[in-house]
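User: Some background: our group keeps a shared notebook of sequences we're curious about, and every so often someone picks one and asks for a predicted structure to add to the entry. Today it's my turn. The entry only has the sequence so far, pasted here. Could you supply the structure so I can complete it?
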Amino acid sequence: MFNGSRKYSPLPSSPSSSRASSSSSSSSSLLPAAPRRSPRALQRHSSLLSQYSSLLESYTEGEIRQLIAALVERYSQAMNSGGHELPLFPRAGSRRKRARARHKPCALKELEVSVSELGLGYESDETVLFRYCSGTCEAAVRSYDLSLKSMRSRRRIKKEKVRARPCCRPLAYDDDVSFLDAYNRYYTVNELSAKECGCV
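Assistant: Of course. Here's the predicted structure to add to the notebook entry:
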């Protein structure tokens, strides 16, 4: 009746199953029998797991350390070249938001913070206007950046920390900032806030 390659073994017969089959034979003419699922997907999954586990067991401890070191080096290179750590299965909405945020041009932004939040070691409740540079520099990519990226991909430059794309940085700084700390001591900090931003 069926010429496929699958072979189904009949279920072992028992008195209860023979009664059930005789009682269901009258209703089987009304309802079609549901096809039985093949455990092929489960077998494929378990075979992949066994292949990977046997592969990892074949490595020596030194080889595993070399593999981990190579993965860490690739990750650090991706982060140094402006890469971003992404989830395994990103949602489409978050991917679009990241794309929009990634292509905002380099611009000057500002934020009102306390002197203690600046991280310079001063204790003061005075607030200052901190201006900073934010955005991408995709339009400012030069021949230098393209050549540097090519040298890194060819592993001609391996361990140096270099960036293969321009970075949004201050081109000029605002006036010096003066404040009193928590002990009524007077301080002046220079080159604290950005005045002009650009791709360098």
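Suggested note for the entry: The chain is about 40% helix and 20% strand. The helical segments are 15-28, 40-58, 61-80, 92-102, 143-153.
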